[in-house]
């Protein structure tokens, strides 16, 4: 067995997969560039670090369960939707997560609220933050299922432990008393330092329509909006444009 094969086996055993993949190329470069041993070692270790960073990012993106690929860098500004370019650039740093800011994305159907929320979530993943995406209705169904299985506290702990939680399409229907309590427990567990991104068609002043208990409505609203960055999106529906043969690119 050639020495390079033995080395590859050792690297596999040590789980240095990035270094193993890069080693043949680095050996060629070593002879061509006349690197010193320390330079060669440093580059090999950088290869391994990059491999692990990419693997962690892929895992965070997979676990986030985004319904679509999206990035802040590729947002479409050709259609007026009242998006502030400078604010979008600020979001790219991920500081909104470090500061524990919520983001409230409001606007009519089809203008790209979900797409923007996914782009913010991808940014968080790239910055090293754990992220989860849930349509509100599916989240509440999971709460109900977890309760029947005696796992509601475990599910709540998962949701209050993630750095960024995206709640999509809040306000489509009125919440039951139990779901209002679930919603309160969720936002109360995240209020101190964690980021919640919420998309909705419903203005804040109308949240009582879907949160009929006035005390819980006030408590939930306060915990979401008190530290929220508000984004009010306008414009025509992208879905409508697609059906009419207009824009085909994601928003």
UniProtKB/TrEMBL annotation:
<dbReference type="Pfam" id="PF01695">
    <property type="entry name" value="IstB_IS21"/>
</dbReference>
<dbReference type="InterPro" id="IPR028350">
    <property type="entry name" value="DNAC/IstB-like"/>
</dbReference>
<dbReference type="GO" id="GO:0006260">
    <property type="term" value="P:DNA replication"/>
</dbReference>
<dbReference type="InterPro" id="IPR047661">
    <property type="entry name" value="IstB"/>
</dbReference>
<dbReference type="InterPro" id="IPR003593">
    <property type="entry name" value="AAA+_ATPase"/>
</dbReference>
<feature type="domain" description="AAA+ ATPase">
    <location>
        <begin position="99"/>
        <end position="230"/>
    </location>
</feature>
<dbReference type="InterPro" id="IPR027417">
    <property type="entry name" value="P-loop_NTPase"/>
</dbReference>
<protein>
    <recommendedName>
        <fullName>AAA+ ATPase domain-containing protein</fullName>
    </recommendedName>
</protein>
<dbReference type="GO" id="GO:0005524">
    <property type="term" value="F:ATP binding"/>
</dbReference>
<dbReference type="InterPro" id="IPR002611">
    <property type="entry name" value="IstB_ATP-bd"/>
</dbReference>
<keyword id="KW-0067">ATP-binding</keyword>
<keyword id="KW-0547">Nucleotide-binding</keyword>
<comment type="similarity">
    <text>Belongs to the IS21/IS1162 putative ATP-binding protein family.</text>
</comment>
């Amino acid at each position: 067995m050639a020495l390079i094969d033995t080395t590859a086996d050792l690297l596999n055993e040590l789980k240095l997969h990035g270094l193993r993949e890069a080693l043949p190329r680095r050996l060629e470069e070593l002879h061509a560039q006349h690197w010193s041993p320390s330079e060669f070692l440093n580059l090999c270790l950088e290869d391994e670090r990059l491999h692990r960073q990419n693997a962690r990012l892929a895992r965070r993106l997979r676990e986030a369960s985004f319904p679509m690929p999206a990035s802040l860098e590729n947002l479409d500004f050709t259609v007026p939707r009242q998006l502030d370019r400078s604010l979008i650039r600020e979001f790219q740093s991920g500081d909104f997560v470090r500061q524990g800011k919520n983001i409230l994305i409001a606007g009519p159907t089809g203008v790209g609220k979900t797409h923007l929320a996914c782009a913010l979530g991808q940014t968080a993943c790239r910055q090293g933050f754990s992220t989860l995406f849930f349509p509100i209705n599916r989240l509440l169904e999971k709460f109900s299922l977890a309760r029947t299985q005696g796992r509601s506290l475990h599910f709540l702990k998962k949701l209050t432990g993630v750095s960024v939680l995206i709640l999509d399409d809040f306000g489509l229907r009125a919440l039951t008393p139990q779901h209002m309590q679930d919603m309160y427990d969720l936002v109360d567990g995240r209020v101190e330092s964690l980021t919640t991104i919420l998309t909705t068609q419903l203005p804040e002043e109308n949240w009582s329509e879907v949160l009929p208990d006035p005390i819980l409505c006030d408590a939930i609203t306060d915990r979401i909006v008190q530290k929220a960055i508000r984004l009010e999106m306008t414009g025509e529906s992208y879905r409508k444009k697609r059906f009419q043969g207009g824009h085909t690119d994601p928003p």
